[in-house]
């Protein structure tokens, strides 16, 4: 070994820490531990109740192994049909109403006051969870699919509007300038400058949205807004787990079919 | 090419005649389906209630004001619970998702049958809404935060595992070969080859799911899952709209903050 | 030290990738493996450390038949075989040092590797290797921040940290620009000679093979068709390996047409 190698032997290495300052590192660790201690206490796990519940868990598991599709056959059928029709209506109208809001919410093709107005609508629509919306609409319009359809129309507008208006804003200014320069009117600008650039995305989003709407239609029934969820709620309320199992299986299969069809169509389009 | 031939003169048209006819028939079919679905919804709707909606809406909007500011001292503890619900539900889901994703990814699964089981778990978890999961779990462990947390976790497993196993399948195999070639054990290959490649996606997906879980946990109380949704439900049932609006505003603010935090965190790990 | 006897590899689909390869290498030998794309060069190199499982034949390394080892024995054997890859095969999100140290994973326990707690001996070696390949200032840089040439230097350091008897190089320069390619080849050959390691370099560019190695082996359709001193490589030999072509006018610019 020569002297240069000897010097090299002394060099050590350890992996640099994610956070340089040791103080900060320990403070964060400490805070996380404190949080965990306090947070866990809020759960109030009732062991006694869970042990009693385990019997029911077995009962349920047993029921799920023998789902009963027949006893409440007509209710299940009605519920599914309602979910599907709600999906059809809410998706069609949602897409239709989403178009003007989307155009308005794209900064590069709309005047500022319109832009702010439409953005505002989108923010409000998007921040309201479907279930909360469904509760409000059920109170306003009464129980049944009408409230559900309205809920999902609002949710569709928020969803399509946000994503599609961002796509429109990504269209290059040059493209739009070129069409404006030919003296095209605003509708012509939309048809020749905007639509060709976002049409495939629009169709893709619409199909994805139909899939999403169907999923929502299975759950808003729990708060009275129609669809298969209401039938499930009733079955659970009566402790009729065999029927509940059957409904769950139906939901899973339909959601899967919806997802498969939706992704198959979108793949063919792109 | 859609050229129209008349008197030996070719003329360009936008669509051929057959194409136009096909499109028209397709449109007609769609319209028919829509109208039938609308009829179905309309039959299931109690129209007097719908027409009554403006009165109802006016009624609860007037009841909302002035908001009951004092209700904050019920809301804040519930909000704390809600956030813990989302955090622990996400952590639990993320932890469970690791083995499931490893089993579900084509390149890491121990066996085809294991893969089938893992995929079934993912599909079941994903296809059923967390509210429905809560409905079932409440029957077993009793209503409360713990049930809500489990429901959030059970629903989260599907999404996190799905996105995660897709990342595993797209992993870069070369570094893994290189580490195998040094004679490293299987566990070490996992440590040096897989984990560094997967970590960013795993953290990103989990944070994204946490953001979704914040939304979900605000409503899970409606079916007995604890948290702020329980307050909303009880305020509405007691027609205390002045309290309900306070809850709604709290939910909106929470969701906005969660969205912001999630976006920042995902930016940091990308 | 390495003797390959009657090595055959057949993939599930397609014809024989290796069709009875025999090759003998003495300690300290540096050989270049050339041949057209699809000749089985990569498969041959990967069979030696069994990243690709051979179908039949023997691979004797220092008197041990690698093809017959069980998993544990194979890991032990791989410790002594370094490998350098075309696309560098670094773990992008790990630092340069972590990538280099991963060459010693087989010599440390799971917990040591988890905590990045490598023995001081390996750390010193890794640091001096990084100095030697010119990356002394990049120890804690993440691998994805490096250029192609720098990444390959990390790959070299990782392989040499293993203190291998045999070094396998699978197209080490194919993703680099001509200047960097030469620098990398020179570095590898210098290091290999300095540490008296045998090396098999699977390489695309005949010119580089001639420049940097003493012995050239030509592979065509899974068979060795040529095995001579580098100086003896002429147009006849090229025709034998690659097929008919006007080698005089084409060399050395476009010697990789298929």
- Largest interface, C-beta within 8 A: A-B, 54 and 54 residues
> Helix/strand-derived class of chain B?
mainly alpha
CATH class term of chain A:
Mainly Alpha
| Principal-axis shape of chain A | extended
- CATH architecture field of the largest domain in chain B: Orthogonal Bundle
Rg for CA atoms of chain B: 27 Å
Q: How many DSSP E strands of chain A?
A: 0
Strands, helices and their partners?
The complex is a heterotrimer of chains A (270), B (270) and C (258).
Chain A lengths: L2 H7 L12 H20 L5 H19 L7 H32 L7 H16 L2 H12 L3 H25 L3 H9 L4 H32 L10 H10 L3 H29 L1
Helix pairs in contact in A: 3-11, 4-7, 4-9, 4-10, 5-7, 6-7, 7-9, 8-9, 9-11, 10-11
Chain B lengths: L2 E4 L2 E4 L4 H27 L3 H5 L1 H12 L7 H33 L7 H16 L2 H12 L3 H25 L3 H9 L4 H34 L8 H10 L3 H29 L1
Helix pairs in contact in B: 3-11, 4-5, 4-7, 4-9, 5-7, 6-7, 7-9, 8-9, 9-11, 10-11
Chain C lengths: L1 E9 L5 E10 L4 E5 L6 H8 L7 E6 L2 E2 L5 H8 L2 E4 L11 H6 L8 H5 L5 H13 L15 H14 L4 E5 L7 H17 L3 E5 L3 H7 L2 E6 L2 E7 L5 H8 L4 H4 L8
Helix pairs in contact in C: 5-6, 6-7
Protein model, in words:
The complex is a heterotrimer of chains A (270), B (270) and C (258). Chain A is mainly α. Chain A has helices at 3-9, 22-41, 47-65, 73-104, 112-127, 130-141, 145-169, 173-181, 186-217, 228-237, 241-269. The longest helix of chain A has 32 residues, at 73-104. The mean pLDDT of chain A is 86. In chain B, helix 5 packs across helix 7, helix 7 packs across helix 9 (186-219) and helix 8 runs antiparallel to helix 9. Chain B starts with a strand and ends with a helix. Chain B has helices at 17-43, 47-51, 53-64, 72-104, 112-127, 130-141, 145-169, 173-181, 186-219, 228-237, 241-269, and strands at 3-6, 9-12. Chain B folds into 2 domains: 3-63; 71-269, Orthogonal Bundle (MetI-like fold), CATH 1.10.3720.10. In chain B, a hairpin with a 2-residue loop joins strand 1 (3-6) and strand 2 (9-12). Helices cover 79% and strands 3% of the residues of chain B. In chain C, the strands form 2 sheets. In chain C, strands 6-7-8-3-9-10 form a 6-stranded mixed β-sheet, sandwiched between helices. In chain C, strands 2-1-4-5 form a 4-stranded antiparallel β-sheet, with helices on one face. Residues 254-258 of chain C have low confidence and may be disordered. Chains in contact: A-B, A-C, B-C. At the A-B interface, helix 3, helix 4, helix 6, helix 7 and helix 10 of A face helix 1, helix 3, helix 4, helix 5 and helix 6 of B. Chain B: Pfam families: BPD_transp_1 (PF00528). Chain B: Residues 79-262 form the ABC transmembrane type-1 domain. Chain B: GO terms for molecular function: ABC-type phosphonate transporter activity.
């Amino acid at each position: 070994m020569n002297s240069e190698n000897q010097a090299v032997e002394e060099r050590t290495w350890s992996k640099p820490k994610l956070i340089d300052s040791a103080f900060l590192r320990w403070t964060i660790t400490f805070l996380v531990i404190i949080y965990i201690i306090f947070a866990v206490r809020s759960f109030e796990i009732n062991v006694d109740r869970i042990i009693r519940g385990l019997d029911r868990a077995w009962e349920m598991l047993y029921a799920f192994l023998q789902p009963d599709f027949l006893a409440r056959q007509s209710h299940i059928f009605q519920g599914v049909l309602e979910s599907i029709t709600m999906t059809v209506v809410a998706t069609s109208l949602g897409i239709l109403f989403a178009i003007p809001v989307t155009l308005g919410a794209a900064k590069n093709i709309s005047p500022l006051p319109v832009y702010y107005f439409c953005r505002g609508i989108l923010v409000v629509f998007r921040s309201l969870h479907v279930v909360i919306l469904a509760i409000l609409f059920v109170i306003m319009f009464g129980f049944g699919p009408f409230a559900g359809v309205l809920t999902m129309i609002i949710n569709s507008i928020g969803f399509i509007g946000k994503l599609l208006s961002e796509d429109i804003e990504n269209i290059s200014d040059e493209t739009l300038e070129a069409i404006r320069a030919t003296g095209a009117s605003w509708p012509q600008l939309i048809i020749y400058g905007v639509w060709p650039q976002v049409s495939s995305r629009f169709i893709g989003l619409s199909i994805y949205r139909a899939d999403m709407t169907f999923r929502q239609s299975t759950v808003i029934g729990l708060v009275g807004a129609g669809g298969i969820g209401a039938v499930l709620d009733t079955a659970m309320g009566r402790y009729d787990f065999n029927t509940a199992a059957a409904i769950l299986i139906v939901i899973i299969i339909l959601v899967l079919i919806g997802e498969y069809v939706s992704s198959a169509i979108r793949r063919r389009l792109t | 090419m859609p050229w129209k031939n008349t008197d030996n003169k070719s003329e360009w048209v936008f669509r051929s005649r057959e194409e136009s006819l096909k499109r028209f028939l397709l449109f007609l079919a769609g319209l028919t389906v829509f109208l039938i679905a609308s009829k179905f919804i309309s039959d299931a709707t109690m129209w007097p209630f719908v027409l009554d909606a403006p009165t109802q809406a006016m009624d609860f909007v007037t009841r909302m004001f002035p908001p009951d500011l004092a209700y904050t001292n019920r809301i804040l503890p519930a909000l704390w619970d809600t956030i813990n619900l989302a955090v622990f539900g996400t952590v639990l889901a993320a932890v469970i998702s690791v083995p499931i994703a490893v089993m579900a990814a084509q390149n890491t699964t121990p066996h085809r049958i294991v893969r089938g089981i893992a995929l079934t778990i993912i599909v079941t978890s994903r296809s059923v809404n967390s509210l429905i999961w809560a409905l079932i779990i409440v029957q077993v462990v009793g209503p409360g935060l713990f049930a809500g947390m489990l429901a959030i976790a059970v629903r989260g497993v599907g999404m996190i595992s799905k996105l995660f196993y897709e990342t595993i399948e797209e992993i870069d195999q070369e570094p893994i070969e290189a580490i195998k070639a040094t004679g490293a054990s299987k566990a070490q290959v996992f440590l040096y080859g897989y984990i560094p490649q997967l970590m960013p996606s795993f953290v990103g997906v989990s944070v994204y799911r946490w953001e979704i879980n914040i939304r979900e946990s605000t409503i899970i109380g409606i079916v007995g899952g604890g948290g702020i949704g329980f307050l909303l439900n009880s305020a509405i049932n007691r027609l205390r709209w002045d309290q309900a609006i306070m809850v709604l505003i709290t939910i909106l603010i929470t969701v906005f903050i969660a969205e912001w935090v999630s976006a920042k965190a995902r930016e940091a790990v990308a | 030290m390495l003797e390959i006897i009657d090595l055959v590899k057949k993939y599930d689909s397609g014809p024989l990738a290796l069709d009875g390869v025999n090759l003998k290498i003495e300690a300290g030998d540096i050989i270049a493996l050339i041949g057209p794309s699809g000749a089985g060069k990569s498969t041959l190199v990967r069979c030696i450390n069994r990243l690709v499982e051979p179908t039949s034949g023997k691979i004797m390394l220092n008197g041990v038949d690698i093809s017959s080892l069980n998993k544990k024995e194979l890991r032990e054997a791989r410790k002594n075989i370094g490998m350098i890859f075309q696309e560098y095969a670094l773990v992008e999100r790990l630092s340069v040092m972590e990538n280099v140290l991963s060459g010693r994973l087989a010599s440390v326990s799971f917990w040591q590797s988890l905590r990045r707690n490598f023995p001081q001996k390996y750390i010193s070696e890794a640091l001096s290797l990084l100095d030697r390949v010119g990356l002394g200032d990049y120890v804690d840089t993440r691998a994805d921040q490096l250029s192609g040439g720098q990444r390959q230097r990390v790959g070299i350091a990782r392989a040499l940290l293993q203190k291998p008897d045999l070094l396998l190089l699978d197209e080490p320069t194919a993703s680099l620009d001509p200047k960097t390619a030469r620098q990398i080849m020179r570095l590898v050959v210098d290091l290999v000679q300095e540490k008296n390691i045998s090396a098999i370099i699977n390489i695309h560019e005949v010119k580089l093979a001639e420049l940097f190695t003493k012995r050239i082996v030509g592979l065509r359709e899974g068979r060795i068709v040529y095995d001579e001193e580098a100086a003896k490589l002429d147009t006849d030999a090229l025709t034998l390996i690659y097929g008919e072509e006007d080698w005089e006018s084409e060399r050395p610019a476009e010697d990789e047409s298929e």
